[in-house]
Amino acid sequence: MTFHSPFTGTLAPIQALPVKYVPSLRVSLIDAPLDQTVDALLSPGRRRVAFMNAHCFNVMAQDPAYRAAIYSADVVLPDGSGVAMACKMSGVRLTANLNGTDLVPALIAKAAAQGKSVYLLGAKPGVAAKAALELTLRNPGLRVVGTLDGYGQARDEDAVIEDINASGADIVLVAMGVPMQDLWLHRNAHRLNANLTLGVGAAFDFLAGQVSRAPRGLRRLGGEWLWRLAMEPRRLAKRYLIGNVTFLARSARQAASQITMASVLRRTLDVAVAGTAAFLLAPLFAATAIAIKLDSRGPVFFRQTRVGQDGREFPMLKFRSMHQDAEARRADLLASSDRDGICFKSKSDPRITRVGRFIRRFSIDELPQIFNVLRTDMSIVGPRPALPCEVAAYPARALGRLSVKPGITGVWQVSGRANIGFDRMIDMDLAYAKSRTLLLDLILIFMTFRAVLSGRGAH
């Protein structure tokens, strides 16, 4: 799924990879494990890839040409613990640190297995050739079809383009540093026949053994920058000690600028309602837990991955209303759905327990989501959070419902719930996302009591 924003130019990431827009960075980043990212990058199609670390964002803030190059890239990958910290300032949690030092070797290994060829352009004289030798030793069968350094051999761009195209390379790695490598690709990627082009920074130095990597334990803690600073203090002190602080301070300012009085009031409402409900409904929670345990085997609570604001997945909490094997049986029951469209609902669902039917009738099963509200995964009012498989099947217009936090209640929930088809639900959610106000939220909260008592569409 792809989320476009006014700050991301022509970003068009691979459809197989999830993307998250990060307000504090004003860019969309791939949010996927390394292996999944590598497989997607090597899938059919042409794409230009950029890695973004804290230094890259500092350069981007000062260099309009580099900013244009990044915004026009097809795929932007998060690189480093600083970027992860900046994402968290906007409430965005990324799955993995997709830095070039880890991803490039994995990419090359997979490319070798697929019989793809690689061209190395950049770094100091001799480094690309040495990196190529190391890569072929580590990956038997890998075809490195050419190397050029990033200095004298790269001065004639037309000659470089001609040499790369004559080599028949499937993948071109460009290691000229930031911003030069991405500016070079911005100018020339469309002239290359290669399907995949990447700006890889210091990757050739690591591959050639010119620069040693931090111990694995330090890397796991996100401290590789400390290792590099210790190895090259004069060259990297300004970048890491001053640059990282500058980057995080700017990210914090941008994240703070996204906070409005409306968002503060809405969050205050969420905490007040959820906190009060948790206190007042404690006896009901206890009684429901006991009834569930007496009725059927299994845990009291049911955790299920749902998709929240901007496509961020989170574990949604409910009282268990089904038998333990409910998820395994879901695929066999899809044809019996009472509801048109993508989202599955069935009145006669055989997976529902006796207690489950009662707590669903009065929406008691949804009450544990007040803890999701307190954790900031959800809001009291908003679209219902969908399953990842449902979001993957969404038409483009339906992705608009992910622009706001999902809620326990909302327009769809007070208007008939499961009796409402998918297309009409999307219309309702898009209308709410476009025109929501604090007054509307209060009205919907009060309307929820009537919807719960009537039980309309609850099954």
From TrEMBL:
Keyword set, alphabetical order: Exopolysaccharide synthesis, Transferase
InterPro entries the UniProt entry points to: Bact_transf (IPR003362), WecG_TagA_CpsF (IPR004629)
CDD domains given in the database record: Glyco_transf_WecG_TagA
All copies of domain Bacterial sugar transferase, residue ranges: 266-453
Listed GO MF terms: phosphotransferase activity, for other substituted phosphate groups
Coiled-coil stretches noted in the UniProt entry, renumbered to this chain: none
Pfam family, one: Glyco_tran_WecG
EC number: 2.7.8.40
BP term (GO), one: polysaccharide biosynthetic process
Family: Belongs to the bacterial sugar transferase family.
PANTHER family assigned: COLANIC BIOSYNTHESIS UDP-GLUCOSE LIPID CARRIER TRANSFERASE, SLL5057 PROTEIN
Protein name (record): UDP-N-acetylgalactosamine-undecaprenyl-phosphate N-acetylgalactosaminephosphotransferase
Organism: Pseudooctadecabacter jejudonensis
Taxonomic path: Bacteria, Pseudomonadati, Pseudomonadota, Alphaproteobacteria, Rhodobacterales
